[in-house]
Specification:
mainly alpha; 3 helices; 0% strand
Length: 68
């Protein structure tokens, strides 16, 4: 096994930890949204969530341009 392959193998645990953290974060976000944004009306809750996301993305578009 060469040096490059060893270096890749060392990154696997980091990638798994970060990937798990991202999945758990979004699971929490979905759970909170399901609980607090019109929990008895799935369709309306989904529409409101999409609307909120569009508004946030619209008002933060200058931040996205700075990142690119």
């Amino acid at each position: 096994m060469n040096k490059k392959q060893k270096k890749r193998l060392k990154k696997i645990p980091q990638v798994l930890i970060i990937g798990t953290a991202v999945v758990l974060f979004w699971r929490g976000v979905w759970g909170l949204a399901d609980t607090f944004i019109f929990p008895n009306n799935y369709l309306f809750s989904s529409l409101v969530s999409v609307l909120i996301a569009i508004i946030v993305l619209f008002f933060t578009k200058h931040l996205i341009k700075e990142l690119l």
